[in-house]
Specification:
The complex is a heterodimer of chains A (198) and B (256).
Chain A: H1 2-6, H2 8-45, H3 52-59, H4 64-70, H5 102-123, H6 129-150, H7 158-186
Helix pairs in contact in A: 5-6
Chain B: H1 18-53, H2 55-63, H3 67-93, H4 96-127, H5 153-158, H6 161-166, H7 171-181, H8 187-220, H9 229-254
Helix pairs in contact in B: 1-2, 1-8, 1-9, 2-7, 2-8, 3-4, 3-9, 4-8, 8-9
Classes of the chains: A mainly alpha (198), B mainly alpha (256).
Chain lengths: 198, 256
């Protein structure tokens, strides 16, 4: 753990140097080459028969592998604002918003009550470190149901999901680095009893 | 029942259509909720770090909190989340009366939550389990590093049966308080307790005000099946308030 913390600056420096080197030195010339070659190929292709791929897809419509690669047209997300930008969506789509029935909300609420009772019941027994883990696990299950049903994330578009979950990702980053610092640097020198993790 | 037909709602000129406007507004709300999660998240990370450094202090501190009151508040907030979700659903369906009732119940739940919090806070202020220098009999005593020599309010109450009677400190609570002040830096737990629940309480009040605003909008009929963005946004905010409490309750009241 200590080494990771001590050398993290070097890691960051390497990444910071490597990113532009790889990006401008390798990727960018590659992209430029492909663009120019593709332009030439495309320009010459106008003199030859076009629409071959369409013909191929039409002939092999029943092929399961092709179906998997192209994605099933029937199972695409078709709820409210599924396109990242509305300009991307088809013209004048009037999609119905998904309305979750009250009964589902009631069931979720009942489940959340049961989970609360479980949290309280488990906390009455002293299990040591397990107590914290169980309490956080149950809280996370509750949070998942609130997010999925009450906050409609189950039926929301992917972008909103990614936006919200990214917050938890950054939180994890904050927690990991702070905790790493504490257990490797502060805790060993503390005046009181702490557990050593390394 | 009045309902706004889809032709009545005129979207802003810089949006392609009503759907575009709705999606953009909701995305903005989600971004705002991200900042909320990160704000509370910083406190949670701080709590977990200090909890790992001073396990005894946090254990003793959490024993002085009444988990029954915390559980009541949890149930109240979960139920208010349900009524808020139901209110959105009713607005979407155009059931105005039911939506108004659901929103009113949500505000009532927020009020119950804050009343319970008021009693909890009141007792803590009286007993002196408060953060920093305010837990001392003479707040000016603890300037510098002299805190260890100062007399705390808790100690004063524990040595005086008359004060215990006055502030309704039972024998069970007295032993818990004795355990709390037996450890150095015990007031840190209450620092976390008051900052975290205080910030959360502020969000409950703000949420109640916003729900009232939405309630007025519903009564006026400016929101309906064609346009319900404010209800949806406020609802999302209210669920995040609930979400934070879902983690706060076990962390503060149950696992010490």
């Amino acid at each position: 753990m200590e080494y990771v913390i001590n050398y993290s600056l070097y890691f960051i420096a390497i990444v910071a140097v490597a990113t532009p080197v790889i990006g401008f030195g390798i990727f960018a010339p590659g992209v430029a080459t492909i663009t120019i070659v593709a332009f030439i190929v495309n320009w010459f292709s106008q003199f030859f028969q076009t629409g071959r791929s369409d013909q191929f897809f039409k002939e092999n419509e029943a092929n399961p592998i092709l179906k998997f690669v192209k994605g099933d047209a029937e199972h695409k997300e078709e709820h409210a604002s599924s396109a990242m930008w509305v300009e991307d969506s088809e013209e004048e789509v009037h999609e119905e918003h998904h309305v979750i029935p009250i009964k589902v909300y009631g069931l979720v609420l009942g489940f959340l009550f049961v989970m609360t009772v479980i949290t309280v019941a488990v906390a009455q027994v002293d299990l040591g470190k397990l107590n914290m883990i169980i309490a956080m696990a149950v809280a996370s299950i509750k949070a998942f149901f609130v997010l999925a049903y009450f906050m409609h994330l189950k039926y929301d578009n992917m972008l909103n999901r990614v936006i919200f979950l990214s917050a938890f990702g950054f939180l994890l980053l904050l927690f990991a680095f702070s905790m790493g610092d504490i257990v490797s640097r502060i805790a060993p020198e503390a005046q009181f009893e702490t557990q050593k993790f390394y | 029942m009045t309902s706004v037909s889809s032709t009545e709602f005129q979207h802003q000129h810089h949006f392609k259509d009503a759907e575009h406007q709705y999606a953009s507004a909701k995305q903005g709300v989600w971004l705002f909720l991200c900042t909320e999660i990160l704000m509370f998240g910083g406190l949670f990370v701080g709590y977990l770090i200090y909890h790992s450094l001073y396990p005894e202090v946090f254990k003793n501190g959490s024993h002085t909190l009444d988990w029954k009151l915390g559980a009541v508040n949890t149930i109240v907030l979960l139920f208010s989340s349900f009524t808020m979700a139901a209110a959105i659903s009713y607005v979407q369906k155009g059931k105005k009366q039911l939506a108004i009732i659901a929103l009113a119940v949500t505000i009532a739940c927020a009020a119950i939550f804050m009343i319970v919090k008021y009693f909890e806070y009141g007792h803590k202020f009286a007993v002196g389990t408060v953060p920093g220098k305010f837990s001392l009999v003479d707040p000016k005593c603890g300037v510098g590093v002299a805190r260890e020599k100062c007399r705390t309010k808790v100690d004063q109450i524990l040595k005086d049966p008359a004060l215990q009677e006055k502030y309704h400190v039972s024998a069970v609570e007295a032993t818990k308080l004795q355990a709390v002040i037996s450890k150095p830096r015990w007031e840190m737990f209450y620092g976390f307790y008051f900052v975290m629940t205080g910030l959360h309480g502020l969000h409950v009040v703000a949420g109640a005000v916003l729900i009232f605003w939405v309630l007025l909008k519903t009564m006026k009929g400016t929101v309906g099946p064609a346009y319900f963005t404010p209800v949806e946004g406020v609802g999302l905010f209210w669920h995040v308030v609930d979400l934070v409490w879902i983690y706060l309750f076990p962390l503060l009241y149950l696992v010490g």
